[in-house]
Amino acid sequence: MLFPAPQPLPTCGHIASGRHYLPIRVYFEDTDLTGIVYHANYLRYMERARTEMLRLSGVIHTEMMTEGTGYYAVHEMNITWHRPARLDDELIVVSHVTKVRAAATCLVHDVMRGDELLCSATVTAAFLDMEGRPRRQSKLWHDRFTLLMQQAS
What is the CATH number of the domain that holds 95? Predict the structure, then answer.
């Protein structure tokens, strides 16, 4: 063998001190004609980060839906773009829980390039039953999100 088999790299990021860190590289497909990230793609980055944060916390969307437990859906989002990201930038999406309610969890996502804040958003993710009605999160998930929130403060 000419080249050793590469070790797989984790795509889920990691959680430290209650905050989830997800690395993202800006590809050509993410940009507009000027070479900056198209504004809607920040939402994709945040969705990936939120999904991986849930996965690392033991909350896996496909399992919840297969079991008929329910799913999370974005109920509200407020977003501010501070500075543009550009082609080939290495970004980090930093996410943390700010509030845990019976049927919803609130988070903040910051998209960073090094120490520079590029985009920030507050998100409320509602937990819904399989018919789309709000329902209580399980005690286990509520407790996990509360712990993450406490660790991040």
Answer: 3.10.129.10
